[in-house]
Amino acid sequence: MKQINLTTSIEIFESKEELSRQEQELVKHAEEACRKAYAPYSEFNVGAAVLLENGKIITGSNQENAAYPSGLCAERTAIFYANAQYPDTPVVSMAIIAINKNGILENPVAPCGACRQVLLETELRFKKAYDILLVGQSSIQKIKSSKDLLPLSFIGEGLLKKN
């Protein structure tokens, strides 16, 4: 038997003021996006902001639907829009924040599994890791690569046919 140990490195910040000016701006955009979410069923609003290498900031919010599988998470809304509008522009960083009826959640919220896969695919597409900021009232977690969110990931190698 062999054993594999996986390590994830996360930087923890106690306040937004500890972030760079650019990161603070990204968090602000994520919070604004969060307030635009359509979440009448869960009342759980999520916002994401993506900073692209060209300096553009793309935002997204969760969009619910009475037929639950038909909704879309904030992270995928933002990433898919960024990739559709700027298909040749890599992501530099992303901020994610969640709000419920009591305000910004105390602890940061991590992306769901489907979003983690999309974040990883974007990283692989551009061959470039990017920072992910998970924002809560009590702390902000900075993850340096989506691979840290999905260490045993599906990367599609078996999907490619070789002649």
Can you offer a commentary on this structure?
Strands 1, 2, 3, 4, 5, 6 and 7 form a seven-stranded mixed beta sheet that branches. The model has no long low-confidence stretch (mean pLDDT 94). The chain has three helices and seven strands. It is an alpha+beta fold. It is globular and about 50 Å long.
Briefly, what is this?
It contains 3 helices and 7 strands; from the N terminus they run βαββαββαββ. With 163 residues, it is α+β, with helices and mostly antiparallel strands.
Task: Describe the secondary-structure layout.
Elements lengths: L9 E4 L7 H14 L10 E8 L4 E5 L12 H12 L5 E10 L2 E2 L8 H14 L4 E5 L4 E4 L20
Parallel strand pairs: 4-6
Antiparallel strand pairs: 1-7, 2-3, 2-4, 4-5, 6-7
CATH topology: Cytidine Deaminase, domain 2
Q: Number of DSSP strands?
A: 7
Strand content: 15-25%
CATH C-level class is Alpha Beta
Largest sheet: 7 strands, mixed
Radius of gyration over all CA atoms, rounded: 16 Å
Q: Write down the secondary-structure element order.
A: EHEEHEEHEE
**Number of spatially distinct domains:** 1
Structural class: alpha+beta
Shape: globular
